[in-house]
Amino acid sequence: MRPIRSACLGAAALVTLLACAPVAGAAAADTGAAHAGGKVRTFTLRSVVQELHRFPVTPVIPGSVQQGDRVVIHSDLLDEADNKVGDVDGTCTTTRSGDPMLVDEAEQCIVTYTLPEGQITVQGMYYNYLSQGPFDNAITGGTGRYDKARGSVHSETVATVPRLVRSVTFNLV
Description:
This protein has about 170 residues and is mainly beta. The protein is built from no helices and ten strands. It has strands spanning about 10-15, 30-35, 40-55, 70-80, 85-95, 105-115, 120-125, 135-140, 150-160, 165-170. The chain has an eight-stranded antiparallel beta barrel with strand order 3-4-5-6-7-8-9-10. The protein starts with 11 loop residues before the first strand and ends with a strand.
């Protein structure tokens, strides 16, 4: 198991990944741009990791990433005023272990953002796990207010200590 501050997920982290106009109204901004007959709605929240565990296929070298490793993550979603507006839960499976010196490892991630008016599901690749790089994933659907949601999520690390914090921008179409 790796310490939270040295591990990252998108989506996840894993996640992670976040929108609710009524709850996070200050964080939401309607761009007014037309796309596929509708408007693109963009908003940003923060994902703060509460639990993150890596389950290595083979514990060869502590801190190494191996093909088949799994990561499970839970994060809190916060608005601009640091109010909790939801949760992030996800899993990732390492598909390419890569060379840690080249930072080219890859993970396939499935993440659910739970908000007061429904859920948004996200899926995609997360590269450079060890360097905690940014990622873009596809919104694959949702429930409630987000039924049939489509678009993308962009996530970037903004802090690693004392907890991993990522800025998550939703682009709903």
